[in-house]
Amino acid sequence: MIRQGRRHPGGPAVLRRLKTTVGCCARPAIAPAPCSARPTLRGRPRRPKRTEAAARRRARPSMSLPPEKASELKQLIHQQLSKMDVHGRIREILAETIREELAPDQQQLSTEDLIKALRRRGIIDDVMKELNFVTDNVDQELSSPKQPVCFTDRQSTLLKKTNIDPTRRYLYLQVLGGKAFLEHLQEPEPLPGQICSTFTLCLHFRNQRFRSKPVPCACEPDFHDGFLLEVHRESLGDGTRMADSTTMLSISDPIHMVLIKTDIFGETTLVASYFLEWRSVLGSENGVTNLTVELMGVGTESKVSVGILNIKLEMYPPLNQTLSQEVVNTQLALERQKTAEKERLFLVYAKQWWREYLQIRPSHNSRLVKIFAQDENGINRPVCSFVKPLRAGRLLDTPRQAARFVNVLGYERAPVIGGGGKQEQWCTLLAFLCRNKGDCEDHANLLCSLLLGYGLEAFVCVGTKAKGVPHAWVMTCGTDGTITFWESLTGHRYIHKSVNPDEPPVAEQPKPLYPYRTIGCVFNHQMFLGNCQPSDSVEICVFDLNDESKWKPMSEEAIKSVCAPGATTSLPPFPPLCASTIDASVTSNEIEMQLRLLVSEHRKDLGLTTVWEDQLSYLLSPALASYEFERTTSISAGNEEFQDAIRRAVPDGHTFKGFPIHFVYRNARRAFATCLRSPFCEEIICCRGDQVRLAVRVRVFTYPESACAVWIMFACECAS
C-alpha cells in the first residue's frame, strides 16, 4: 500500500492577527492584438502570362535537404525498391518488350519506349503508391512530434540516432511483438484518445539500461523496439579492442528484462522478470538468431506463464568467425555446473552454521535470522547477494540525500492471494527501481548499498517492530563506535544508546526513540552475523560485531564464493541509477492547476465562490523548500523569512491559515481526496467569511529513477 500524505511535524498551522495594511494590486487587462489586414493594391501593371511549365515550377515547393538527410532518403527509397523487387520486374518487362516490340531493323530501345512500357504495365504507379510521400505539414510534424493517441505517456522516449563506434562490438536486440498474454484476452481495443493500461519493457546489460516505448495492454501487445547493447570488456588494457567470439563467450552476464504494467491511474505492477541468455547468437549462422521467450509471473505466480515475446538477436559488426553451437552449449553447461556446485557447498555450510547457532541457545530457533530469501521469481538466494556497494555518480551528493531518495520510493507489500500472513518476496534491484516501489526489505537493501558506496560501514538489520511485525532497516557503525539506525521508509535517523539491564531500577536509562523491538541478524555484501546475545531486544543489544560471544559470524570466504561479483552466473548484476525524466517546474504547475480546479469545483458544490490570490500562493514556495531541506538534512532553515513575508502580505484585521502536506505520487485527484480527510485542511478549503482569498502552492522535488517528493500547501486569508 502506498504511503498516504503526511503532515509535517512542525506543520505551520499559522493563525495570527496581522496589523499590516497592504494595498491591492489590480490585474491588468490584456487587450487583444490588432488584426493585420492585407493591403489592396490597385493599378498594378499586368504581368505577362506564365507558361504552363513555369507555373508548375513556381507551384512546386522548394525543399533543400542536408547531405546526410538526402543520403538517408536515397537509402530508404533503395530499400523499398529492393523490397518490391522492382529491378527484377523491370528486367522482365525489358526482355518482353524486346521480344514483342523491337523491329528487326532496330538495334536498341529508347528510354522513352521503356518508360511507356513500364507505365503501361503499372510499375511506376505501384512504386509511387508504396513510397507514400507526404508533404503536408512536414515542418510542423518534425518540430512537434505527436504521441500515439491510444495511450497516455508523458515520459515517452523518442527514437534517437546512436553514434556507433566501428571499433566496438554491439548486440542488437529487437523485440518483434508479443503473444499469449491471456490475462488481457478480453481487453477491448483502445479508442483513439482513450487512456488505457500499458506495458513497458526495461532492460539492463553490463551497466547499460534501456526502456521501451509503452504499448497498450493486449493479448498480443505491439512491441516493436530495438536496443543496441555494447558488448565491452572490463579487463585492464582490453577495453579499446573489439571483442571476438571467444572473448564474448566468456562474458556470462545475462540480459535482465523486466516487464512493468502501468494502469490508467499511473500505478505500476511488476508483471515478469526474466534473465535472457544471449550467447546462443555466437553459434548461429551470420550472427543472427530468433528466440521465443516465455515470461513467467512473479511471487506466488512464478510458475504461471504470463506471455511470450519474439526476440531477434544480431551481432554488429558481423562476426568474422562464428563458434559451433556445440562449443557454446558446452560452455553454458560448464557454467551452470560450476554455479550449482558452489551453491550446493554454500547450502551445506549454511546448514552446519545454523546447527551450531542453535546449539548456543535453543531459543535462537524463534529469532529472525534470514540466511536465504526468495526473489520475485521464487528463487532462494543468500541475503548477502541483495546488497552491493552502489555509487550514485552525480545524481546524489550525500548519504542523507540518498536516504531521502530511498524514502520517496513507494512502499508496497508483496501481494498475497488469500490469508496467511506476509508474502515473502525480496526484489532484485532492477525490478524494484523499474516498479518504483517495494517492500521494506527492498528499501533497506538499496539504502545499505548506497551507504556502502559512500564508504560507510553499513548493514541491513532484520528484526521486528511493535507487535512483532517483521521489519528490515539499516545500521551504520562509526569509527568512534557510534551506532546509527536508518529507517529506509521514512528517512529518519536514530542514535542507538544501549540500556544496561544490570543497573538498579532508580538509575536513569536512555529512552529509545526508534520503533524497533528485536533484532535477529545483520548482513552486508561481505558479512553475515547472527545475534547470539541472551536477549534479542534492541534496547539492551550490544553492537560490538567483532565480539563472537555476542554475534556469530559466517565465513567471509563462504559468502564471497556465492555473492562476490561474477562468482556465479545466477547472480543478477546491479544496475546503475538513472537520472530523473520529470521536469519539476512543469509537473509542479500541472498539479497546482489541477488542484485549483478541484478546489473551485468543490466549493461550487457547497455554494461558495472562489477567489485565488496569486501573490500569496507564490509566498508559500519558501516554506515548501524549507520542509524538503529539513527532510533531507534534518536542519530547519528559512522559517523566519517566510513568516515575515506572510505578515507583510496579509492585510490588517485578516487571519491567515496554512496547511502543508507531503506525498510521493503525482496524482492530483488522489492527493486532494487525502487532504479533505484532514479536518484542518478541509476548514481551509471550505473557508466561509468576508473577503476570503485562497492560495495553493505545489513544489515537486525530483530524485533519480523519476522518484519525486511532492509538497502541497493550502492557505487562506479572510477578514477576522
Radius of gyration: 34 Å
| Oligomeric state of this protein | single chain
Number of helices: 18
Amount of helix: 25-40%
In the CATH classification, which architecture of the domain at 333-414 and 423-497 and 514-563 applies? Roll
CATH class of the domain at 333-414 and 423-497 and 514-563: Alpha Beta
Q: What is the CATH topology assignment of the domain at 333-414 and 423-497 and 514-563?
A: C8orf32 fold
Q: Uncertain segments of ≥5 residues (pLDDT<50)? A: 1-51, 53-63, 133-158
Instruction: Decide which structural class fits the backbone.
Output: alpha+beta
Gross morphology is flat
How many strands in all?
Answer: 25
**Residues in β-strands, percent:** 15-25%
Distance between the termini: 42 Å
Largest sheet: spatial strand order? 19-18-17-16-20-21-22
Mean pLDDT: 82
The major sheet is characterized as: 7 strands, antiparallel
How would you sum up this structure, described in words?
One of its GO terms (cellular component) is centriole. Keywords: Cytoplasm, Cytoskeleton. Centrosomal protein involved in regulation of centriole duplication. Required to limit centriole duplication to once per cell cycle by preventing centriole reduplication. Belongs to the CEP76 family. This protein has 18 helices and 25 strands. It is 30% helix and 21% strand. α8 runs antiparallel to α12 and α9 runs antiparallel to α11. The chain is flat. The chain is of the alpha+beta class. The strands form 6 sheets. A 7-stranded antiparallel β-sheet has the order 19-18-17-16-20-21-22, with helices on one face. Strands 1, 2, 23, 24 and 25 form a 5-stranded antiparallel β-sheet that branches. Strands 4, 5, 6, 8 and 9 form a 5-stranded antiparallel β-sheet that branches. Among the domains are: 157 residues, C2 domain (Immunoglobulin-like, Sandwich), CATH 2.60.40.150; 207 residues, C8orf32 fold, CATH 3.10.620; 136 residues, Pathogenesis-related Protein p14a (3-Layer(aba) Sandwich), CATH 3.40.33.10. The N terminus is likely disordered. β14, α10 and β15 form a beta-alpha-beta unit.
